[in-house]
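hey can u check if this looks right to u? its 251 residues, i copy pasted from the old doc so theres a chance i mangled smth
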Amino acid sequence: IARAYVVARDAFNLTDLWAQIEALDNQVPSRVQYSMMLDLMRMIRRATRWFLRQHLGLSTQDTIEYFGPRLAQLQESIGELLSGEEQVAWRKRCDELQAAGVPEALTATVAAAPSLYAGLGIIQAARITNEKPQRVAEVFYEIGSRLELPWMIQQVTHLEVRDSWQAQARETFRDDIDRQQLALTTSVLKLEAGSRDTQERVAQWLEQHAELHRRWCRLIDEVRGGSEGGFALFAVAVRELVDLAESDSKA
């Protein structure tokens, strides 16, 4: 666990970001600093779990050197890569932090924390598909927006838990949705004779899987309608997403 944490910490440059936040003492409200630290720690906690599950065959330093620069590149263009509600949320968070007096560069990074975690999977998918990380990221965030996956993850996050098992289930749901979004991204990138335009390519892929897409949309509507299915509902949702993500392999 310690090794995975060190890799996550250094790959995301947490030490430097933490120092930048601490340097804002007496310049911005302490509650703002705390909220920024909390955003980053949530990201690092998820990243630590991600590295724990991976078998990359690299040393600690090699892993950091592989992911660090690529994550930095994604972070620099995150505002352009995000799509839909995810981009709106990022801009809103940026505005909040800048209004509190946080420097622009730091606000962009901290505001991207909920989305930047996905960069780990994006970088892996880029290696698998032989695409550039930025290209993979474009498709990843676009398919997520079209299927409202960031919104779905928010609903999972808001699930009330009564014990450690439910807390673990909630985290598993979040991770499962992330994994299926990545699988969907890979499928879209492998689409034969697909458009190079990201939005058109995603639309083409969804059209080829129209029935499963409609099933997913009906489930989204049910959740939006206030269904109280709780953990059982989200277990079904993840299953539906798996069916959609694996539809190419079953064809």
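The CA atoms of residues 166 and 231 lie 8 Å apart.
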